[in-house]
Amino acid sequence: MGFLTFRGGIDVPHGKEATEKLPIVDCPPPQRVFLSMRQHIGAPAQAVVKVGDEIKIGQLVGKAGGFVSANIHSSVSGIVKRISTKKIMGTDAVLVEIENDFQESLHEDVKARGNLDALEPGEIRKLLGESGIVGMGGAGFPIHVKLSPPENKPIDVLIINGAECEPYLTGDHRLMLENGKEIVQGTKLIMKSLGVSKAFIAIEANKPDAILAMKEHTKNEQDIEVVSLKTKYPQGAEKQLIFACTGRYVPSGGLPMDVGVVVNNTASTKAVADFILRGMPLVDRVCTVTGSGITSPMNVKIKNGTPLSHIVEVAKGVTPDFAKLILGGPMMGMAAPDMDMPSTKTTGGLLFLNSEDAYIPESEPCIKCGKCVDICPVFLEPIYIARYAEKGYFGKADELGALDCIECGSCSFICPSKRPLVHSIRMAKRKILESRKK
Fold this sequence. Notes:
Layout: E1 24-26, E2 32-36, E3 46-47, E4 54-55, E5 60-63, E6 72-73, E7 78-88, E8 91-100, H1 121-131, H2 143-146, E9 157-162, H3 171-178, H4 180-194, E10 199-204, H5 208-217, E11 224-229, H6 238-246, E12 261-265, H7 266-278, E13 284-290, E14 298-303, H8 308-314, E15 322-327, E16 334-335, E17 349-354, H9 371-375, H10 382-391, H11 394-399, H12 410-414, H13 421-437
Parallel strand pairs: 1-14, 9-10, 9-12, 10-11, 13-17
Antiparallel strand pairs: 2-8, 3-5, 4-7, 5-6, 7-8, 13-14, 15-16, 15-17
């Protein structure tokens, strides 16, 4: 089929060499975990335990606060020591603090829920509503919501997103190499829940070993096709991935379901198999710890709620010239104010930068080169949206489609004047949404 792709986008330094060949290792469990009730998009979960309760792995700690929400389960066995509220990345979050007894005791609910042949589509969706599984590629969208589209939006294609186009991150790459069987099992369960007969597992061409591994795992699966994507950023963005695999264009303001497609990340697809076939809810995940500011880069499986400072210790500490920690990758990640916060279901990468790599150059006046317009994957005019935002003309920014921006950062990366375009557009989106709420 050749390499599939989309219009626009950029070539970025991969930065994956440090970890792409490193197998996944288990992070030694911490003395205490801090389970946030905000680990997903939507309403926060509501704590259902109290101080002094004895807890086991897989036990429900926080119950979903609504349909667009997700359950939270304990990642360790031990005792609830405290329930408190803390501001994390600017948002108040309730934290359930559990002291680890290091017994690794499993809760009685951790048991297989059924198998592909025995379960009906509705049963699979209902079970996944209990699983706590959310999108693990960054957004944290509850999976049971994604798999419950309105009746007037029938789904006929499932895409498993193995692109992992964000520089430095290699966790999904390693999962496809080491847990390909489980990813295929999860894919088949999701296909049945949606009633679809076609699925693509989409992988960028810079992961040839993962492509070969997944083709081997799907050689007897006529309805699952492994496709190679051109190595280009942001190839893994939902709308761009849909166009590359199907030729379908998600309209402005639309969702994948509007064109009959559901996209799911490889990690959360594996989590589906882990829960349905083995009974384990989403209590841990693979995280890439990397960058010029960390001593020992690694792909590590961490228990949800693990303090970031503990992960740093496991990676043998930061380098003497460490300057910045980014949650995620360099293009779409967010700078962390400190390491005094716990990991969550969406902690897929910890990027440590030294002072040289963390340097932000001074921005200069726009030279009207048009590069940001040429490469924008959603056909926007970033420089004009950003300029209106900087002047406070948010209505004008809205008219130019600011809300369609996927905040991939391609425009800021390509700009020869180093204008902070994506930052200004992100501000405009926030102001526009605030205005609409009012």
